[in-house]
Specification:
The complex is a heterodimer of chains A (218) and B (194).
Chain A lengths: L5 H10 L10 H23 L2 H7 L4 H25 L13 H22 L9 H23 L7 H21 L8 H26 L3
Chain B lengths: L1 H5 L4 H15 L3 H22 L3 H17 L10 H26 L20 H13 L3 H12 L4 H8 L3 H19 L6
The chains are: A mainly alpha (218), B mainly alpha (194).
Chain lengths: 218, 194
């Protein structure tokens, strides 16, 4: 570091003591951001998606569809909330674990859905649908959703940006997967699910790498 | 003092830190200076747990203070200051350890490293040893001889310039350089004709 003494540094910092507005509590900021994302998602679903396709796909299994959607949304909501908490120094690291249970539930329910299709459709249940499109959808939607998320989270200038970036990535990927449900005109096979998962992992890894810099204090 | 502040019992201290930090957030420079000064022993004690030298500890302390300055808006008034501050100090100490790990993994210390020049002929690994050997020899010279030798032989000044710089006449410079060279040659044990 520079050759100046700690006392000189303190004097310099104190002389720069401009008023700063304390950030609102992380839960409040997380809820405001989730509300913003919900509005974005609702607009996209109402304007661009075809509800009837979703209902046809889950015909007779509506409760299953609701559970799967709930698990996906819970993963996204807990990941985003955790990112806001972890961006503040000294908050519990347990937030990193918060989305694990809904994430596992979401993957399990998706897997069960695939199994159901396998029984109904036989061998075709193993085929690969237009998965490249799904992969691109998850990546593109994650990018769009990440922008407001990173903008909001980065206001805290996280001291330890990696866990924050991981949770932000998981949140964006989960919400993208939720949106994908409304733009997915075919039954999901195991291979499709693997591609979805690969898309999610790609988004989480990319966010962790990119956001580590974007979120790091200057 | 440091020990006292790192103990869990410093409730009053935390309350005082909280008040000072809230005042600092409002732009009170005096309160901010006082806050930074009062947390420094605590930060230093935390840095000492993970550090390897006094210099490194002071670097970490300054890094923590700079970080506190950048993220002071993340302190939520009314909450305890110590966990907030301890998280920043721990993070910066770990960053310093990692940085040190990266440097020591990729760099080794070599005494001749600083004597490396672009021209390969100019590299002389024995130069440092020669300089060390020369020092006791120079101690044998009178101050006037040493000055004359330095100005004319080492700084490569002309006799006129050296005379102006030292105040010695050109004749005494010549005599002093001659005597100095003779003494050095005798000490090295070499023939003056060499």
């Amino acid at each position: 570091m520079s050759g100046r003494s700690t006392e000189e540094l303190i004097a310099a910092l104190a002389s720069e003591a401009k008023p700063v507005k304390p950030l609102a509590p992380p839960l409040k900021r997380a809820l405001a951001t989730l509300a913003m994302l919900a509005a974005l998602a609702a607009a996209a679903i109402l304007l661009l998606s075809d509800w009837s396709l979703l209902l046809v796909r889950y015909a007779g299994r509506e409760h299953f569809m609701l559970l799967e959607i709930a698990a996906t949304l819970a993963t996204g909501a807990l990941a985003v909330t955790g990112a806001f908490f972890l961006s503040i120094p000294g908050r519990s690291k347990r937030w990193l674990l918060a989305p694990i249970i809904p994430f596992v539930a979401w993957l399990t329910l998706s897997g069960l859905g695939c199994y159901h299709d396998l029984i109904v459709n036989g061998r075709s249940g193993w085929q690969l649908g237009p998965s490249l499109e799904c992969l691109l959808f998850i990546i593109a939607a994650s990018l769009v959703l990440s922008l407001p998320l990173v903008w909001r989270v980065s206001r805290a200038r996280p001291v330890d940006p990696v866990p924050v970036a991981l949770l932000t990535g998981l949140g964006a990927a989960a919400f993208s997967a939720f949106l994908l449900q409304f733009f997915h005109p075919f039954a999901v096979t195991f291979l499709d699910l693997a591609v979805h998962l690969a898309g999610i992992l790609m988004v989480v890894a990319a966010m962790a790498l990119l956001n580590r810099r974007a979120l790091a204090p200057a | 003092m440091e020990e006292h502040l790192t103990k869990a019992g410093g409730h009053d201290t935390q309350e005082r830190w909280g008040k000072l930090l809230v005042a600092a957030q409002a732009g009170d420079a005096a309160a901010y200076g006082l806050f930074l000064r009062s947390i420094t022993p605590f930060v230093r004690a935390m840095a000492r747990r993970r550090s390897w030298s006094e210099d490194a500890i002071e670097d970490v302390v300054q890094d923590v203070l700079l970080t506190v300055h950048r993220v002071r808006h993340t302190y939520e008034p009314g909450r305890p200051v110590k966990p907030w501050l301890a998280a920043i100090a721990a993070r910066r100490s770990i960053d310093a350890l990692r940085k040190r790990g990266r440097v020591t993994r990729q760099e080794i210390h070599h005494p001749g490293a600083y004597e490396t020049f672009a021209d390969p002929d100019a590299n002389n690994p024995g130069a440092a040893a020669s300089a060390a050997a020369l020092e006791p020899m120079l101690a044998m010279l009178t101050p006037a001889q040493k000055e004359a030798l330095e100005l004319v032989k080492l700084r490569e000044m002309s006799l006129v310039e050296a005379s102006a710089a030292s105040g010695q006449s050109i004749a005494s410079l010549k005599v002093n350089i001659h005597r100095a060279m003779k003494k050095l040659r005798l000490r090295v044990g070499k023939d003056p004709a060499e």
